[in-house]
Amino acid sequence: MKVTRRDLLKVAGAGAGAIALGGLGVSYLVTESYAKKLKTKGAKEVRSICPFCAVSCRFIAHVKYGKVVSTEGDPGYPISEGALCAKGATMNSMVNSEHRLLKPLYRAPFSEKWEEKSYSWMIDKLAKKIKETRDKTFTLKNAEGKVVNRLETMFHMGSSQMSNEEAAVVVQAQRALGLLYIDHQARI
Ligand code: SF4
Question: Are 105 and 117 in contact, with CB atoms under 8 Å apart?
Fold first, then answer.
């Protein structure tokens, strides 16, 4: 059906938009059927806290058949009132992204390809490398003879995918090794 500018002006002037749009042949059926297919329909709402920084915004996870199908900010939470920053807003993809790595990948020196490894293989490899580096380069005393107990040849960069609690434990472990250079992405 062809709708002219005059037809639209008549609709606005009438002040009965819904009825008049119906008269112009605009159907509401499409909207209705889309609402029926919403992925959150019938899902259980589970409230949780964003783990990515100390603001701790609350979000709602929509869970269906044991799987998270959607996440959104919780408008009932007084601190953030439903808002999430870019990291919190992508919470759903942290769980469901097809790019999410589920196994450790290792690339040998000078190799061009990544190999899938088990977690135990990877932890063992990292532990050996860390020990080797620490044994070779640990600084017990500085140039003035003062005990400093530090390791300046390693740097630790934390991931924003870690929760605050995980980050706290990891930083303590790095300090115990003597690291000075530690940074973490999860901050405002
Ligand atoms: S990372 Fe963003 S969404 Fe998550 S708690 Fe911090 S400010 Fe809130």
Answer: yes
Tell me how far the alpha carbon of residue 181 lies from the centroid of ligand 1, in angstroms.
Answer: 25
In the CATH hierarchy, which fold is given to the domain comprising 44-96?
Phosphorylase Kinase; domain 1 (3.30.200)
3-state secondary structure of 71: strand
Q: Is 85 in the pocket of ligand 1 (CB under 6 A)?
A: yes
The verdict on the CB of residue 163 being under 6 Å from ligand 1 is no
Please give the C-alpha separations between residue 135 and each of 89, 140, 141, 146, 151, in angstroms, as whole numbers: 43, 11, 14, 19, 10
DSSP category for residue 145: S
Domain range list for the chain:
5-36, 44-96, 102-127, 138-188
User: 106 with 129: CB under 8 angstroms?
Assistant: no
Is any ligand 1 atom within 6 A of the Cβ of residue 162? no
127 DSSP 8-state letter: H
The conformation of residue 178, written as its DSSP 8-state character, comes to T
Q: Is the CB of 50 under 6 A from ligand 1?
A: yes
Residue type present at position 94: M
How do strand 115-116 and strand 105-106 relate by DSSP bridges?
antiparallel
Residue 166 confidence (pLDDT): 85
pTM of the model as a whole: 0.60
Q: What is the pLDDT of residues 32-78, one digit of tens each?
A: 666 667 888 889 999 999 877 778 899 999 999 999 999 999 999 99
Which atom belonging to ligand 1 lies closest to the Cα atom of 59? 3
